[in-house]
Amino acid sequence: MRDLLATVAATVSAVLLLTGAVFCLLGAVGLLRFPDAVTRLQASAKAQTLGVLLTLLGAALRVPAPYAGLLLLVAVFQLFTVPVTSQVIGRVAYRTGAVDQSTLFTDELAGRLAPPDPPGAPGTGEDTGAGDDRGREP
Questions:
Q1: Which of 85, 59, 81 lies closest to 72 in space, CA to CA?
Q2: Which residues contact 39 (CB under 8 A, 6 or more apart)?
Q3: Which residues contact 26 (CB under 8 A, 6 or more apart)?
Q4: Is 117 helix (H, G, I), strand (E, B) or coil?
Q5: Is-contact 38 99, C-beta < 8 A?
Q6: In terms of DSSP H, where are the helices of the chain?
């Protein structure tokens, strides 16, 4: 009976580990293939999180109980930190103009956040070269 339980645990663990690895691979492919920051965030946040959780669960089935508890603690930490990180990165991408506005169905941040300054606008620190005669010979 112990051999049967060990075989089932090993099989379930292998399936979880392989499935997690596939999700991590798909998330990495999404990071390379998707065109803008918002879709890349979707690929990294969703696929990578599920991949890491499945991999940790598969590993937790194969290690002794104290280590399994630590792996599950890491999984909970992932569940709390990834959405917050994605939110912050998404807002930074929106503020810096890395988000293609035409691809958004609903822009809920338009009223809350100021649009990014165009390059060369006053106060951006970028020199357009127009109208600057300092240091030139007449």
A1: 59
A2: 30
A3: 43, 47, 51
A4: coil
A5: yes
A6: 2-33, 37-42, 48-60, 65-96
In the structure encoding, which two tokens stand for residue 94, read together? 């929106």
Token reading at 59: 């590993």
d(CA 75, CA 56): 7
Residue type (1 letter), 65? A
The per-residue pLDDT for range 35-68, each reduced to its tens digit, is 888 888 888 888 889 999 999 999 999 998 889 9
72/77 Cα distance (integer angstroms): 9
Cβ–Cβ under 8 Å, residues 6 and 68 = no
Specify whether the CB–CB gap between 58 and 13 falls below 8 A: yes
How many Å from the N-terminal Cα to the C-terminal Cα in the chain?
A: 96
Do residues 57 and 69 make contact, with C-beta atoms less than 8 angstroms apart?
no
What is the model's pTM?
A: 0.71
